[in-house]
């Protein structure tokens, strides 16, 4: 496995849409993402004795996610990876032009 990586997403829980962070690793054999956590923030601040201040708790809600939602998250991750791959590709024309400029 390579990673862990993070991707911002949205999740609907109990009728509310929340921002979430998907924590995943990529399986080196098939390249598919393996979602390890789906983190979302709590609604209210709570006092943390350890930190000595108010903090917003973060929860892993992966156990609450149905299989179809996890598959949807995997699709979002694969789409984001494809966009990055497409952005990194250089055309033959641009490559030849760069080689001429460097010479």
Overview of this protein structure:
- This protein is α+β, with helices and mostly antiparallel strands.
- Helix content is 32%, strand content 40%.
- The protein has one domain (2-102).
- The strands form two sheets. It has a four-stranded antiparallel beta sheet.
- It is elongated.
- The model has no long low-confidence stretch (mean pLDDT 85).
Could you provide a short overview of the structure?
The chain has 103 residues and is an alpha+beta fold. The chain contains 2 helices and 6 strands.
Distance between the termini: 41 Å
Number of helices: 2
- Largest sheet entry: 4 strands, antiparallel
For the biggest β-sheet, the strand order reads 1-2-3-6
Show unreliable segments. Answer: none
Molecular shape:
elongated
Secondary structure topology:
Elements (H helix, E strand, L loop, with lengths): L1 E12 L2 E11 L6 E9 L4 E3 L4 E3 L2 E3 L6 H22 L3 H11 L1
Antiparallel strand pairs: 1-2, 2-3, 3-6, 4-5
Q: What attributes characterize this protein structure?
A:
103 residues, alpha+beta, four-stranded antiparallel β-sheet, two-stranded antiparallel ribbon
């Amino acid at each position: 496995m390579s990673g862990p990586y993070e991707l911002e997403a949205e999740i609907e829980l109990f009728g509310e849409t929340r921002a979430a962070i998907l924590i995943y690793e990529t399986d080196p054999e098939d390249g598919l993402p393996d979602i390890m956590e789906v983190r979302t923030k709590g609604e209210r601040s709570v006092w943390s004795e350890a930190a000595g201040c108010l903090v917003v708790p973060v929860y892993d809600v992966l156990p609450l996610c149905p299989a179809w939602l996890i598959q949807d998250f995997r699709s979002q991750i694969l789409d984001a990876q494809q966009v990055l791959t497409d952005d990194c590709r250089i055309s033959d024309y641009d490559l030849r032009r760069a080689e001429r400029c460097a010479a």
